[in-house]
Amino acid sequence: MRAQSSPIPWSTVFFTLLGLGWCGWTAFPTSVPPACATSGCALFRDAVIGGVSLWWVGGAYFFLTALLALRGKRIASRLLAVSALAVDSVLLFIMFFTAPCFDCLVAAVFIGLVYYSLRGEPDGWFLMPSGPSLLLPVWFGLFLGNSVLAADEMLPRHILGDKNAEVSIFFSPSCPACRAALASIGSAAALYPVAEEPGDIDRIIKFASFLRDGLSAGDAAERSMDPEQSAPEYSLFSRIVLTVQLLRNKSALLRQGVRSVPLIRISGMPGFGSTSLEKRNGRSEEERRPPAAAAAGRDGTAAPPAPMPAPPPPQEYDGRLQPDFLRDLDNIGKCGGDAAEPCSEASGER
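The structure assignment produced for this chain is given below.
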């Protein structure tokens, strides 16, 4: 019995070729490390099925579907499309609970388009009924959820200061504890402002302006609270964009299970690289090197090198061993936290 054939669905061929090109481009990245628009790209880039990369599996699917469509094998190409959409739904489900992958979402678009282009062919086979289908809305719901998560990760947040710093501070300018944190370590941190009180948006605008004028983070925070200091002019559109970015900062704060500010995050041990550590100990690399061997003694043997001085002991901090980088944090507290009245000023307690 001959396989059923039909006119070539050129839309299917077009979408499969686009998908094949995307899989090939992703499987052979042009940069090292490969560019990732979202965190899920790095997570799923090296994922394999049976020892074969997902991108090779996807490329093989698009190539085979295009070949079947060109030969008019309607039933076989639809069977592949249904299987691919079902597998992609499982992958989207996994991504939703781990991390969104932008590259995977682009491939999912082509998988969905191939499915829909074949489903729209006349004389639909039972795998793709002409009426409502459960598989397509399930896939679309998972795709939409992942797209929202990816957009949330890709859209910029409002970050001030050194965006690549090892220390990050979520703060509100109206919070006295936050201003203490900014005065202590704000100049070496990435700053994520959060609008906690009425008028904070204007204070954040003033704070950013003072930073651009060269003020330290602590001084800029204090001056932003001065009602006689006027905020720079902001257009309505710029205020809307800033408001959305501040809401994203606050959502990032809440997703970490934190409801009070300041939140201070440390990546690694700031200031404890080799260069900073030598500066901290007051000795350069040259000074730390052992002196050259002394001239040979009477017996012809070289004198042993001088012993290296012992490093200074770590500073004792509140009963724990802590770097002196954090020496002032006991005076910061947090709004709504356990510190002694950290927010007793007119801004009110959190």
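Interim note for the steering committee: The domain at 10-154 is CATH 1.20.1440 (de novo design (two linked rop proteins)). The chain is about 45% helix and 5% strand.
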